Amino acid sequence: MRKEVVLILLLAVAVIALLSLSNRYNKPTDTDARQFFAEDLARSYPNADAREILSSAQVGEGASAYYLLKARVAYNLSTPCPRRLEVEYYYPPQSFVRRSPETLVGNCQVCLGANSTCVLSYMEEAIIASHTAPRTDSVGAFLRNHPEAVPSVQLLPAFNGESNVWQVNWALADGSGISVYLSQHSGQLVDVRSLGS
Predict the structure, then answer these.
(1) Mean per-residue pLDDT over the chain, rounded
(2) What are phi and psi of 153, to 5 degrees?
(3) Contact, 153 vs 131, CB < 8 A?
(4) The model's pTM
């Protein structure tokens, strides 16, 4: 009977030691963090047009290390007024309160109160500015006449001698439409052209 008790105790100690060692060496990885975050974003924002992990950084070392991840969540990307949220996440989840998503672009407004300098950091801002910035009245009229127009956006390294220019194409189903070019650095209109010219 005594041998059995000693054997059970030894077995229990061995199991506890193995679990302790496996937890010590089973540190979360960047891949684990990104996968868990992507799954959580899909659950938390099922109707979003875009869910994109922007960054992942390890904070700390050893057993107390964790990852801080940031993601972009966008809605209404096919409309003149998209919305962009920034979501932060800690992996493994921490015991402190998770920060609420921050709305970076919304209410169909960018650069409120800006005189001459308005940096358009995000594609969602470029879509809104393409029809609300000064001298874009023709684009606004086009969108009122063609509410079915869908935007596509790219950041050009250079255009018309200017660096970092947003190109926002408002396309119709037949391929026609309008291209709007905006300076990323100032938010100012650079050019408006018929799509394809």
Answers:
(1) 84
(2) -130, 140
(3) no
(4) 0.77
